[in-house]
## 1
Amino acid sequence: MFSPVTNIEELAGFLAKLNGQPKHHIGYCGVTKKEIMNVLQNDFSDDPLEDSFFLVKEEGEIVGAIGFDIDHDDRSAEVWGPFISKADGWEEIAMKLWMGSEPNRKSLNELHFFVNHQNERVSGFIKSLRARKKGEHKTFKINARQFSGASSEEIEELPTALNQAFIQLHNKVFPETYYTGEDILGRINQYNKVLALKGSHKELIGYVYVEIQPDQNEASLEYVAVTSSKRKFGYGTKLITAALETIFAYPSIKEVSICVNTDLSGAIRLYKRAGFYQIHSLLHYQLSF
């Protein structure tokens, strides 16, 4: 039976049970009940949860779920699922979820799926909808207990005098991204920080931008960049190490995860040198309307 979400804890438990298995894994979704509940309650979709997540139940138990983390500004959504616990009738349940959620997707132009390369059933289902493969990504993780690096004394929070240099570097390296340099400066606060590496003449060599949410036990390493003339000297690793030192100064944060396009081999080497290890390989699909 097609059902609305009435119990977030029940939904989070169902998603956590499946998403910890590569054959069911979806990149956007967490793998523990606690972290999934936190996202569903605080940071999921521009629409209410009951208009963004859809369930199929049998005998009162969830057997299928699909969610749409909707961004109305660009009329897109990141898709969680479909998650289906039954092997028999998988395609039937998947189509029921897809068709049942259609009215809530009518305002969207595109959907994005990040699917574990071992999640063959979801990949096959997405392809049947004529979604296009856009790329491949790898996710990496580092735990606080594994982190032993010490940051450079040359790295500090971005001084106002380097604001313009930061904007120019960021907008040049990331010309089509979700935050411009000006956006990032507007987001800086107690927990969102730009750490800057300066040269001998106080010029900007590179930066790293982090967002920390200690009350939610989360942090993200959003951007790192080094000026073109200073690359391949280890400055990127220094910046990432400084970012991790800043993040792990909060005892509530135990790990940091990142997702990197496999085309960015230099970035992958950089994160590995900083101590990150690979946990998943993901396929990115896009469905446009």
Note: The two ends are 27 Å apart (CA to CA).
## 2
Amino acid sequence: MGFKDVFKKSFLEGFTSMDITTGKIAATLIVTALLALYIFAIYRLVTRKVFYSKNFNISLAVMSLITAAIILAMQSNLVISLGMVGALSIVRFRTAIKDPMDLAFLFWSISIGIICGAGLYEIALVTSVGVTVFILVLDMLPVGKAPMMLVVNSSEMNGEKAVLDVVGKYARYYKVKSRNLSKGRLDLVIELKVKEESALVSEVAALDGMISASMISHDGEVTF
């Protein structure tokens, strides 16, 4: 018997349905479900978005179970394993995920499904606890205050200098991000770091020709 035959035999022996018992399936799905509920709770705890998506959170838990079931099926039969690889390779997910934290939770959920499907429950448990501690510790670290956006609408076409003079009195840093001139109207978007926000907005709003002045906080995803 040559090396090719030995490799072929050992490879095919790795795909015996006798190894996938009802008890193993039940144990895998139960452990995965418990860890999926844990991810569900942690996501709800750490997310601070106003528009919290319960459907997305549910999908995280469901995805762990589905992934674990796929891994179990791939272990049971060589034909199913190759078929799964082929089927999953042509799937394209079009849903855009804008928040990096959502992407991290999505990858966490899929990883737990893979690890539990492979029967490595201890690794899945330790990983989940470690990821949770890591997220909470990093979330508690102090960060600098993010820049604000001052949105100015004025009927004074030459009023930009007056606005920037006022901004310069209050802001440690500022930069004009958008400048739009139209018939009888000046629109400015200024990124700045300032402590006395109310005083700045009040003084800008009191300038000649000023239609409106708004201060907006942003996280890098605001679109004008």
Note: The mean pLDDT is 78.
## 3
Amino acid sequence: MQIDIPESWRQLLADEFEKPYFKKLEQFVDEERQKHTVFPPEEDVFNALRLTPYEKVNVLLLGQDPYHDNNQAHGLCFSVRPGIKPPPSLMNMYKELHADVGFRIPKCGYLAPWAEQGILMLNAVLTVRAHSPNSHKNHGWEKFTDEIIRKVNEKPEPVIFVLWGSYAQKKLALIDTSRHHIIQSAHPSPLSARQGFFGSRPFSKINEYLRADGKPEINWQIPDC
């Protein structure tokens, strides 16, 4: 497995890469790639870390599993490659952005501009077999990404943790809620968006917290691809 990440992350996670569970995980993913199509491509697996070095993390947005259809996943939660139609959860995020901050809904679902502004867009599981959702869960990725959450929790300044849905909210146990900001609601999936995601105004809340902490606000607008 190709691990091309910024030096700040490499130092923090060096011990993790040497642990037996991670070696086993690497072997599992390599074997899966030999037998099946696996998303995202190898060079994109660690894009969340690559685009948002540790020192730049102001927000952590947690997803669950990469998109499993062709040409979608590229290593950032909720984001798809340029030119790919935004999936339903992302469209619901766009609708809430429009209602919350007047966002103009683009045809593009490529969210790298958010990552470049300090949002760590982390999935709990970083790979998936094509067309087989959750096929790589419980093979070690969760242990690795829990450690990433712990490292972000250790940052001396406040970070905003965005936890949508019950799966993400289980990670509250890893976060010092007395020091950090927590934004949680239902997941933007079509199955649950109307149960508390719509109307929750997470995007303006993120900018309010950033402003209060003296950090740059996020420009949410995504250009058309």
Note: Residues 20-35 form the longest helix (16 residues).
## 4
Amino acid sequence: MPRFRTTTMILAAAAMVTLAAAPAQAAPGDVTTTCASTATPYGYVDVSWGYSASCGTQNFNPNIKQIKQLTGLPIGTVVQACGSTYYPAGWVQTSSYYSSSCVAWPNSGFNNNAWTLKRVS
């Protein structure tokens, strides 16, 4: 019985790592939609938020997000991103602003919630 429990725990841990990993075969600049409960992988930024019943909530709060793969984009590339996640090394914020598509939390007001990012290295 302890061997079965250990094997089950290892398989469960492996499944969680797989779910948290970056989307398979994503090319630079690709955009993927995921449930908001999934952490944004390193090298990606959130680019918009929305609601979908497929992500399992009964209210209409934002529960899905689109994420964009930044890894591999050339130096000088400029992208628009939500301020709900950190941007990767090699990118700098050149401006911040309010975007209705970046409202990740209800009643968050009209504060700056989005960035213009530029790849510098």
Note: The CA atoms of residues 37 and 63 lie 7 Å apart.
